[in-house]
TrEMBL record:
This is Cell division protein. It comes from Faecalibacterium prausnitzii. SMART domains: Ami_2 (SM00644), Cpl-7 (SM01095). InterPro entries: Amidase/PGRP_sf, Amidase_domain, Cpl_7_lyso_C, SPOR-like_dom, SPOR-like_sf. GO terms for molecular function: N-acetylmuramoyl-L-alanine amidase activity; peptidoglycan binding.
C-alpha cells in the first residue's frame, strides 16, 4: 500500500520490524507530549531509541511520514496492535489532558479519512471499551480505533483526544460516505460521581482506575465529574454502567461532555516515568518535577524503591 499523499515532510526512522504480518484494520492515535513540529516528531525516533510511528502531525497540522505504512512501527507497546495499526503521533501539550491544536485535530480527521479510503474502508469505529474492541472482528469495510493506554500504563492519547474519539470516528465515517452508527453525533457517557471539591473527585477517579476502568475527569455545571467511555450507541453505555455497578459504583448515563480537567499522576506513575527517562536527570529532573507540582522527595523515594 502506498503512503498518504497528505504528507509534507519525510524522514524515515530505522526503528521498525519490517513488513507487517497482519492486514491494516486499526488506527492508533497518540499524544507526543510536546507542541512539536512534524520535523521534530520525526527527530524523536533516531536509531537505538526503540520507538517510532508511521505518521506525525505537527502543531500547525502538517503531516510527516516516519515509517512506511507497509512496515510495523514501534508505537503502542503491543506487537499485536502495531502489526495491524497505522500509528499517528500528534503534537500536544506536555501535561494532562494533553490538549491539541485545532489544526492537529483537523489534520488527524483528514489523515484518518485518507487511510480508510486507501484501505477501502467506509466506517471508522470507536467502541471506548478495550475488551470489546480487542475481541471484535471487523468487517472488510471497517477500521477500528485503538489507544496506547490499553497496552501500557500510560495516559496516551490523553483525555483531551480520548474524549473526542467518538467525534473523530463519526466525522471520518461521514467523510467516507459510510453509514454513521450515530448520525446525531450524541455520545453517551457513564458517570460515577460529581463533586464540588476536586480532591474528592481525585479520590473517586483513583478508585475507578484501581478497579480496572478507563476513566477521566471533566468539569461542568460547577462540578468535577468522573466519567467512563463516550459511546455512540446507548446500549454500549448501558453495558458499561452494568459493569461499574457490579464493581460497586453508583452510575448514571449522561450526554454532557464538559471540559477535560488536568489530573496529576500518582507518585508511583511518575516514578515509573522517571525510571524510563522521561523527566531527565539530576537537577534538571528535580526542577521539572517541582515545576509540575510533584513532591520531589516522595518521587525519588519511589524511584529508589523501584530500582531496589
Amino acid at each position: 500500500m502506498s503512503n498518504s499523499s497528505l504528507i509534507s515532510y519525510t524522514k524515515l526512522s530505522p526503528n521498525h520490524s519490517g513488513q507487517r504480518t497482519h492486514s491494516v484494520d486499526r488506527i492508533t492515535p497518540h499524544c507526543v507530549v510536546g507542541q512539536l513540529s512534524c520535523e521534530t516528531i520525526c527527530d524523536c525516533f533516531p536509531a537505538g531509541r526503540g520507538a517510532s510511528c508511521n505518521y506525525g502531525i505537527g502543531k500547525d497540522g502538517r503531516i510527516a511520514l516516519c515509517v512506511d505504512e507497509d512496515n510495523r512501527s514501534w508505537c503502542s507497546s503491543s506487537n499485536a496492535n502495531d502489526q495491524r495499526a497505522i500509528t499517528i503521533e500528534c503534537a500536544s501539550d506536555k501535561t494532562e489532558p494533553y490538549a491539541m491544536t485545532d489544526a492537529v485535530y483537523a489534520s488527524l480527521i483528514d489523515l484518518c479519512t485518507d487511510i480508510c479510503k486507501r484501505y477501502r474502508k467506509t466506517k471508522l469505529l470507536w467502541f471506548a471499551d478495550k475488551e470489546k474492541t480487542l475481541a471484535y472482528n471487523p468487517a472488510a469495510n471497517e477500521m477500528i480505533i485503538t489507544v496506547h493506554r490499553w497496552f501500557a500504563n500510560k495516559s496516551c492519547p490523553g483525555d483531551w483526544l480520548y474524549n473526542r474519539l467518538g467525534d473523530l470516528a463519526a466525522k471520518v465515517t461521514a467523510k467516507l460516505g459510510g453509514t454513521a452508527s450515530n448520525p446525531s453525533g450524541t455520545l453517551y457517557r457513564v458517570q460515577t460521581g460529581a463533586y464540588t471539591k476536586k480532591v474528592n473527585a481525585d479520590a473517586q477517579l483513583e478508585k475507578v482506575k484501581a478497579a480496572g476502568f478507563d476513566t477521566y475527569m471533566v468539569q461542568a455545571g460547577g462540578y468535577y465529574k468522573i466519567q467512563v467511555g463516550a459511546y455512540s450507541k446507548k446500549e454500549n453505555a448501558v453495558a458499561m454502567a452494568a459493569k461499574l455497578k457490579a464493581a460497586g459504583f453508583d452510575t448514571f448515563i449522561t450526554t454532557e461532555q464538559g471540559t477535560a480537567v488536568t489530573v496529576k499522576k500518582s507518585v508511583q506513575e511518575i516514578a515509573r516515568e522517571v525510571v524510563a527517562g522521561k523527566w531527565g536527570n539530576g537537577e534538571e529532573r528535580k526542577k521539572k518535577l517541582i515545576a509540575a507540582g510533584y513532591d520531589y522527595s516522595a518521587v525519588q523515594a519511589a524511584v529508589n524503591a523501584l530500582m531496589g
